[in-house]
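Quick question, first post here. What does this chain look like in 3D?
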Amino acid sequence: MSVQSTNSFTTNGNGDLASSKQNQNISNAELNTSTVTTMSSRSTGVNMSLSAGSSSSSSDGVGVGDGETKTKAETEGDQLLIKAQAGKIEELKNREAALSRLLSAVRKEKMSALRSRPLTIGVVGFGRFGQFISETFAKHGRVVATSRSDYTDIASDLGVTYVPLSDPDAFLDNQLDVIVLATSIVSFESTVQNMVEPLKRYIAKQKRGNRRGPLIVDVLSVKEYPRQILLDLLPEECDIMCAHPMFGPDSGKNGWYNLNFVYERTRMDGVVLDQTAADNEESFVEEGTHQIHSVHENSEAHIEAKDRMERFLSIWEEEGCNMVPLSCAAHDAHAANSQFITHLMGRILGAQGLEPTPIDTKGFDSVLRLIDTTTADSFDLFYGLYKYNQNSMDTIIKLQDSMNDVVERLKNAEKGDLEKAVIASKL
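> Answer (accepted):
Ran it through. Tokens below.
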């Protein structure tokens, strides 16, 4: 049939337009389609023929059912797309491998830089925790420890220089880059007070215009309390970092990998940092005034302060810690509902004198481990978590309320059973 201009439609049951199936002669090829065919024999001079059926295929098309047909060109296009996607994935994998090699090279360069300028770290308080961190610090730099008791032999075994706490000037004369205060919570303030005058003397001995104190780092389990003490008492020349390794000698005995290290950069070159401002490599915001300071302003002190903090943090990073920048206020809010309640439950359960039995469940084993872990720490630590975190009492009150609620539900359930029994006896 010779077609001049044919637009032939029918409607389906939903009132939608659908192309009518027509058989038309084509001079050179047979085309299968169910779509609208609009051809003009005057403009094209072509005779066409449609084969019946919407899902059959011809030599130039691929039937996909429901009236849809893919041409050979479209099929080849799909294949090219698949090949292109495979090529893209391969390209991304190559880039990923290149980035991995670059990261490895950067880490090696970073370690080389750290080892070329190792920190001298002082540790005040050489008890169990002080020894624990000093042993690892000694792998990354020189460590000088001081404490009330004589730990000379233990320090020597760990590769650490020991100076008695009774001679703070000799301790500071070791040209310390960083001083870590690893004391108990209850003795923290007095320890800082006793260090203030020796620090002032040490700073005064330096050349005018270049008088800088060491970076002071606290590692207590509470943060707002030591932060305020350090800001109130320390000379302005001392930078301050408040940190909390969320692990100790027991949980970190097999290494620090994947353990949390929480820290706040508190004061740098006399500027107290605003912890609500976004961290920036090139600047920082002053607390209170919200003034933006460049790390390059005034003198090299800003650069040195930033560099010293980063080199100290790098020790924890290289040991595999999860680095968690967090303000002291946010830390204490979280800690009350995690660390303190853990110690509180351990102490409460421990006070019951629970012992292993021949029929212990895995759950009860976990309870005993909780008791062992929490009671292994001193009561001073537990007391400090309570006294020096303003959120702790709220946690205790919530625990008491929860206990009362659970007991009340048990009593109500028992009362309900008794009432049912009385009713049943009367039937």
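Confidence is low (pLDDT under 50) at residues 1-67.
The two ends are 93 Å apart (CA to CA).
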